[in-house]
Specification:
Elements lengths: L2 H23 L3 E4 L6 H12 L4 E5 L5 H5 L3 E4 L5 H10 L4 E4 L5 H6 L1 H22 L2 E3 L2 E2 L23 H20 L2 E7 L1 E3 L12 H11 L2 E4 L7 E5 H13 L9 E3 L3 E3 L1 H9 L6 E4 L4 H6 L8 H7 L7 H16 L2
Parallel strand pairs: 1-2, 1-4, 2-3, 4-5, 5-7, 6-7, 7-11, 8-10, 9-13
Antiparallel strand pairs: 10-12
The protein binds 1,4-dihydronicotinamide adenine dinucleotide and 2-amino-3-ketobutyric acid.
Organism: Brachionus calyciflorus
Family: Belongs to the NAD(P)-dependent epimerase/dehydratase family.
Function: Catalyzes the NAD(+)-dependent oxidation of L-threonine to 2-amino-3-ketobutyrate, mediating L-threonine catabolism.
Length: 340
């Protein structure tokens, strides 16, 4: 063989092994509750990373025109309908489930039976499916899985958890049941406790941390914001890009290298007053006033600062955005979306 042919042959072999590796390692991913605040962004990320054909986004609502333009596969799927989910998993050869369907803290308090049904029965269905079809499964938890008896600054991974919202109660159950399925049945269950997530292009679904998204819209539109939490209410928060990257990084991490199945992750903590002061650097005549509602009691029972040292140590979690970067990025994104 000439040296040129040898080089060519080596090149083909190298590319071929790359293709094999990619095909083997690209999971086919199903997202439930995918049309909420977090789902569309994660679907984009997965589509870019594993290929458009490898993501199926599901929910019980109709996708808007903006989402449809992206060309992401969408199917109607109620997490209470086990048979339909079984069909989707088999027909679409699903490997991973990211289970986002849930009622969040504030809406959960307004409809406890529905929160129990979606957050408990729906979640149980997902774990059963993971067991039945040998799927890797991600179910997020939240800072809301802690309560007033937990140490609040900082809040470690393993401590007292006595949440006072139905949302928190159902999320503690999800953590415990997932860990039970991992131990008893070998299900590859993974769970991250997210702080309040802040994003520009998707609206939050009815949580206690939603003020920290609406404040940006109002700063640009009316330059006035009415805040339902007291100025000194400190809560852990995170920019959406860090949150979505954490899901991919954590899901790809080798199972045998994870010392836990449930981890806290954190990026920053701030109060409404601190966020307002940072926003004022961009909108100098922005005004805030405070009209406290029932969400204050929820926020007062949640962690102020999240201790995520185990995630940083075990799977190298390292968020990119702090408060100044987050505010800068939110304004850049929102101005482009609103054509300002
Ligand atoms: N956004 C945040 O700040 C945080 C979110 N999380 C968790 O991340 C996950 C995703 O959160 P978001 O996207 O913000 O929630 P979201 O409230 O924006 O979206 C939830 C989605 O679930 C869907 N859903 C409701 N009932 C359903 C059913 N029966 N079957 C299928 N889908 C149903 C809704 O239509 C909605 O699109 C949730 O589990 C939440 O607890 C955790 C901590 C913080
Ligand atoms: C922190 C959360 O889980 C959510 N954003 C909520 O406020 O309910």
């Amino acid at each position: 063989m000439s040296s040129r042919t040898q080089i060519l042959a080596k090149g083909i072999a190298k590319n071929y092994s790359k293709i094999l590796l990619r095909n083997y390692s690209n999971p086919r991913v199903l997202i439930t509750g995918g049309l909420g605040q977090l789902g569309p962004g994660l679907a984009n990320l997965i589509s870019n990373r594993y290929g458009k054909d490898n993501i199926i986004l599901t929910d019980i609502v109709k996708p808007n025109g903006e989402f449809q333009k992206k060309g992401i596969n969408y199917l109607y799927a109620d997490v209470l309908d086990l048979k339909n989910l079984q069909q989707i998993i088999v027909n679409h050869k699903i490997d991973w489930i990211v289970h986002f369907s849930a009622l969040l803290s504030a809406v959960g308090e307004k409809n406890v039976p529905l929160a129990l049904s979606v957050n408990v029965t729906g979640m149980q269905n997902i774990l059963e499916l993971a067991k039945q079809f040998n799927l890797k499964v991600f179910i997020p938890s939240t800072i809301g899985a802690f309560g007033p008896e937990s140490p609040r600054n900082p809040t470690p991974d393993l401590t007292i958890q006595r949440p006072k919202t139905i949302y928190g109660v159902t999320k503690v159950y999800a953590e415990l049941l997932g860990e039970y399925y991992a131990k008893k049945f070998g299900v590859d269950f993974r769970c991250l406790r997210f702080p309040g997530i802040i994003s520009a292009d998707t609206q939050p679904g009815g949580g206690t941390t939603d003020y920290a998204v609406k404040i940006f819209h109002d700063a640009l539109e009316t330059k006035k914001f009415e805040c339902y939490l007291k100025p000194d209410t400190r809560l852990p928060m995170m920019y959406i890009d860090d949150c979505l990257n954490s899901v991919i990084q954590f899901m790809e991490y080798p199972s045998d290298k994870l010392a836990q199945r449930t981890y806290n992750i954190s990026a920053m903590s701030f109060t409404p007053e601190e966020l307002y002061n940072e926003i004022r650097k961009h909108v100098s005549d922005f005004e805030i006033n405070y009209k406290i509602d029932s969400r204050q009691e929820i926020a007062d029972s949640w962690p102020q600062v999240f201790d995520d040292q185990n995630a940083r140590k075990d799977w190298k979690w390292n968020p990119e955005y702090d408060l100044p970067n987050l505010v800068q990025k939110m304004f850049t994104e929102l101005k482009s979306i609103k054509g300002l």
